[in-house]
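User: My advisor, Dr. K., asked me to get a structural model of this assembly before our group meeting. I'm new to this, so sorry if the format is off. These are the inputs:
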Amino acid sequence: MLLIGYGNQGRGDDGLGPAFAARIEARRLAGLSVDADYQLTVEHALAVAEADGVVFVDASLERSEPFFFAPVKPAETASIASHSLSPAAVLSLAGTLYGRAPEAFVLGISGSVFGDVREGLSEEARHNIDSAEAFFCQWYSEFCSEQDGGSGSG
Amino acid sequence: MAQSRLIEISPVTRVEGHGKVTIHLNEKNEVDEARLHIVEFRGFERFIRGRLLWEVPVIVQRLCGICPVSHHIAAAKAMDMICGVDQLPPTAEKMRRLMHYGQVMQSHVLHFFHLAAPDLLFGFGAPAEKRNIFEVLKEQPELGRRAILMRKFGQEIIEATAGKKIHGTGAIPGGINRNLPIETRDRFLAQIDDMLEWSQEALALAKNYTVENAELVDAFASFPSNYMSIVREEDGALDLYHGAFRALKPNGEAIFDRLDYSKYYDVLIEDVRSWSYMKFPFIREMGPDTGWYRVGPLARMNTASFIDTPLANAARDELMAVTQGRPNNSILANHWARMIEVVHCVETIRDLLHDPDLQGTDLKATGERREEGIGVIEAPRGNLIHHYKVDENDQVTYCNLIVSTTHNNEGMNRAVKDVAVKHLSGHVDITEGMLNHIEVAVRAYDPCLSCATHALGQMPLQVELFDAENRLVASRSQSA
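Assistant: The format is fine. Below is the predicted structure of the whole assembly, which you can bring to the meeting.
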């Protein structure tokens, strides 16, 4: 499993993705590779294609919940209009170039202060990243158990 | 009665940051005015004030997610000057060069293969669903895979020299904080032949496109301008890391040559216009009307006397032969120039990897402290100036940055106007293909509006038409 946290930590809560990646990396979870970057770009397609599964972690403007976690599929009609790609476009690129787009999820962590040049997370974002971390660790534990169970029964 | 109209392309796709193109049509649907606007401003210069000089090369990487290494190196060079270091130890300078050439290579590759290729292969006016990198990859998947491996190679060089993929710490005031272990060097050397072969194939693609479409290239947003870059001080060679200023007139005559870049403010001045947050630099002695200039890969081909690596130099000779050695004004030739620089970067990286200085242990120099420092490099998109002043507590009191996209502001605006007049004037219905011509002109500069305005983000394309009373009469949008 690969986790990619992305965003700019010099832009306030836009740094939620890399901050989350740093927290998870520190936990050294078995079987989980962690990467952090400013944004998703084309070369992430190679790493994604080589992974068994991927979790993309980004800041979210959606503030009704502290975070959301949802599956993501390769985009059917993706375009690359910028140096930065969406998770669906990265998956699509992985499928197009390497014939493999693994099971993938997006973890969006709600933030409230974006854009301005500012270091550190807002209080709201710090609360939300705590919740997201607790959720992810639980989810990953269950995911691994299911994988182990699946392997065992197979 | 016919109405004058206003068309907005907001923001431009496949560039970074928040940009908007507005095109004013008169009653006859002729283009009256066309402008590239910058719609956000974040004030990074203010943010940096009060920070300690030692942390500046790291913090400035947060300016932009596209070219953080350029800011890292330019800031470190400025801090070298503040630390009184005029000459780095060979290991430090060569490690920085390796980092810089690795980043220029990977940046150019991304732009050419993934952002520009759809326009070049399918035509500017092709349907949007066809004019897409995924359509390119369906036809030429191996090309796409090679482009990704070239990107990866460049990024791994950055990681090996800067220490981390993001927020690298490699370049420090007065030097570098690491050398290149033998095993890392050998890992890169094992890939260098592939990189050189693939870069030459990319160069051939760009050259062939330019030559085979000479009529289009010559006519598309081509106009004379001044050109500026740094060149190697002793012989005028292309040098992306260090040198002295050279500016040329459209006929190739020097405006200034081998000028110490620490005096940039004596020759350059930034104009402000009410409708854009991005400034308009010009050469002071010439004034804003004739003193504007362009920077970037094509500008560097124009200003350099030669390139000191053989394959790239031969390629530059071919490019310059098209204009009989005079400056080339075709913005689409930027793609050719960009791929010449990729070959040059790979040749330089290869030569550096064979240099035992990369394994040296003398990493840092010291000198007599100064209060002011200026660092200038040639970033992927063109000249980049970092200027700082610090107080006795090592805190930054002044910061001024002139990034490549700001240098090119006037040129991009003129390109937008030129293409708008040629492709939109007289048309009642403005198609998506017509509007893409405008974007192609902007994209040829590979602008990084994120740096220029210190904003981050990208949004879908929106096009809006306004009537004589500035009422919205039509709107188009394109998903990013």
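One thing worth pointing out at the meeting: The longest helix of chain A spans residues 123-153.

User: Perfect, thanks a lot.
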